[in-house]
Amino acid sequence: MISINSAIEDVLSKEGGYVNDSRDAGGETNFGITIGTARAAGYTGPMRDLPRDRAFEIYRRQYVVAPGFDRIAVLSMPIAAELVDTGVNMGPKVPGVFLQRALNALNNGGKDYSDVVADGAVGPATIGALQAFLRKRGAEGERRLLALLNALQGERYVSLAEGRVANEAFMYGWLARVA
């Protein structure tokens, strides 16, 4: 069974090593960590030298614990892993919003559970809605929720490419995260 640590390892392997692509608005990255994120986390060295274990800890703190995806993992590790991966690629708030929007769209007009505010903050209301959804829909519901999260992710990629021509250079690679 996948764990949060293995989900982070999966992200690290997808992200690879050092990149400094002038088309990337995030600037220099290593293991997918942007220079801005690394500096905010206290790393002051050259990005090329960012240690893998430091990248792992940044992911754990900023992309698992801070957005509350560790609490999602208790209910559904596949959904938590998807949220972590999407958060690394789009920022940790975005997948929280995706989850909330998806749960709202799947609640049968509020008959199965109440709508949650789609603010990206994964708190008790979002956790409760996910619990209710999984209790009602089970393993098949989990698979369909994952499909909906991926659909929202794919749409976001198209919007990013449409909004900034330079992002088209990354579109094909981004789709590997959805496929």
Textual characterization of the structure:
63% of the residues lie in helices and 2% in strands. The chain has helices spanning 4-15, 35-40, 52-65, 69-75, 77-90, 93-105, 124-163, 168-174, and strands spanning 29-30, 33-34. By secondary structure, the chain is mostly helical. The longest helix is centred in the last third of the chain and has 40 residues, at 124-163. The protein has eight helices and two strands, in the order αββααααααα. The mean pLDDT is 93. It has a two-stranded antiparallel sheet. The radius of gyration is 17 Å and the shape is globular. Helix 4 (69-75) packs antiparallel against helix 5 and helix 5 crosses helix 7.
Uncertain residue segments: none
Distance between the termini: 20 Å
Number of helices: 8
Helix content: 55-70%
Which sequence of SSEs, written as H and E, runs from N to C? HEEHHHHHHH
Radius of gyration: 17 Å
Q: Give me the secondary-structure category.
A: mainly alpha
Give the percentage of residues in beta strands.
under 5%
Q: Numbering strands along the chain, what is their spatial order in the largest sheet? A: 1-2
What do the pLDDT scores average to?
A: 93
The backbone outline, from C-alpha atoms, is: globular
Itemize the secondary structure elements and their pairings:
Layout (H helix, E strand, L loop, with lengths): L3 H12 L13 E2 L2 E2 H6 L11 H14 L3 H7 L1 H14 L2 H13 L18 H40 L4 H7 L5
Antiparallel strand pairs: 1-2
